[in-house]
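Weekly structure sync, notes
Attendees: PL (lead), two postdocs, one rotation student
Agenda item 3: pending single-chain targets
PL asked that the sequence for the first pending target be pasted directly into the notes so everyone works from the same version. It is reproduced below exactly as submitted, 251 residues in total.
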Amino acid sequence: CDAAFLAVRNFSNLLRNRGIELVLVPVPPKLAIHPEKFVGDREEGVIETNDYRKWLSRVQREEIRVFDTAEALSSFLEQSDVPAYLQSDTHWRPESMEWCAHKLAEYLYTENLINGPPSPDPDLIEPTTIAGRGDLWRMLRLKEDNTLVKAEEVPLNQVRTSGGMRWQPSRKAEVLLMGDSFCNIFSLGEMEWGQGSGFAEHLGRNLRRPVDAILRNSDGAHATRQILAQELARGTDRLDGKTVVIWEFAA
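Predicted structure, written out during the meeting:
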């Protein structure tokens, strides 16, 4: 808990010295949002460990901004007839992911972290569907003909520019998104849940402006910070022109 707190505080101080605000986006695990699926006779509601609460309290005392993803997911469940997380995967469904991207964009505007007017040409969405069995199926090493975990079909909204091209991150954007597999889940084809429909794409669509992105599966929250540090050391200033860094990671 101490190491995790110090890492966040040091990173926030580095950014503030350059006039950049840090926004933390910790994404809770499936168990935290859907405890009723794991623990019998338990009412629905978010589960948070004591260590997480202590870490969050220390971060907030430093006046570091935290987007409450758990609250956003709870509000999604209140208005939705589908779960927030995929059935046979550790990650969220596309609907709840899009909801959180929308809520995060609202937060950034409400907190006056975004400068200038939005783009006059909004991004477009192209609806499609995809079916998959997820990372839980792969981690259990089930055979192809196993019927315990069936393929789950979900709707995707691929984000495209006003000219019809697939959305791409921009180094010139004032917003830098650093994230893990929760950002990649519907964007990185190797994860087998589609492409062009991820968190970065939908955050950019809701902000109606470009977004830069450093995304890396696994290796915890430190991986994207390490990539950023390596680029800075090589003379590639990914923080140039940035006003806000969003640091998403699995809680």
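Discussion points:
- The beta strands are 21-27, 65-66, 124-132, 152-160, 175-179, 212-215, 244-250.
- Residues 94-110 form the longest helix (17 residues).
Action: rotation student to compare against the earlier draft before next sync.
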